[in-house]
Write a structure and sequence with these properties.
The chain has helices at 2-37, 51-55, 71-81, 107-126, 130-143, 151-156, and strands at 61-66, 85-90, 97-103. The protein is α+β, with helices and mostly antiparallel strands. A hairpin with a 6-residue loop joins strand 2 (85-90) and strand 3 (97-103).
Length: 157
C-alpha cells in the first residue's frame, strides 16, 4: 500500500514537471515570436554620447568647433541644459581641436549653454592665482627673522 502511494506521488511529480517545462517552453517561444514581430523602439540616450549614437537618432546633427580644452566644464553645463551632444577630438592639428556635435533641435539650449560656459571661463581668467599667492606668502614668511630665546629668559618668565 505504502509503495503504491509513493509510486503515484512520484508519477504525479514527474507529470507536473513535464507539464510546467512544456508550458515554459511554449511561453518562451511565444515571447520570442512577439519580440520579433513587434518593432521595439530603442531607448533614446540623453546627454553625452558617441557621435554614432547621436547620428543614429534620425535627427539632423550640427557641430561647433572648440579650441579650448576645458571640456569637463562644458559637459557639466551642457548636462544642466539637457543638451544631447557628442565630443570628437581632432588630433591632426597641434594643439588638438574639439568638435561638439549636437541635435539641431537643441541649438537654442546649446547657445545658452555656450553663453554660460564662456562667462564662466572669463570669470576664471579674472580670478587671481592661488598658487602665486601661496608662493608670495611663503617668501614673506621665510623673510621674517626667527626669534630665539635664551634659557635665562625662560626662567624669568
Amino acid at each position: 500500500m505504502q509503495e503504491e502511494v509513493e509510486n503515484r506521488t512520484i508519477n504525479l511529480v514527474i507529470s507536473t514537471s513535464k507539464l510546467t517545462s512544456r508550458n515554459m517552453l511554449k511561453l518562451m517561444q511565444k515571447a520570442i515570436k512577439y519580440l520579433k514581430n513587434e518593432k521595439i523602439k530603442p531607448e533614446v540616450q540623453h546627454g553625452k554620447q558617441s557621435v554614432k549614437k547621436l547620428i543614429g537618432q534620425n535627427q539632423r546633427v550640427s557641430s561647433i568647433e572648440i579650441a579650448n580644452t576645458q571640456i569637463k566644464d562644458f559637459e557639466r553645463i551642457a548636462r544642466k541644459y539637457g543638451v544631447d551632444f557628442a565630443i570628437k577630438k581632432d588630433r591632426s592639428e597641434m594643439p588638438p581641436k574639439y568638435f561638439v556635435f549636437f541635435k539641431a533641435k537643441d541649438a537654442d539650449a546649446l547657445t545658452a549653454a555656450f553663453k554660460e560656459f564662456s562667462a564662466k571661463s572669463m570669470q576664471k581668467t579674472k580670478r587671481p592665482s592661488i598658487l602665486k599667492e601661496l608662493y608670495r606668502l611663503k617668501e614673506k614668511v621665510a623673510s621674517i627673522p626667527k626669534k630665539t630665546r635664551n634659557k635665562n629668559q625662560e626662567r624669568d618668565l
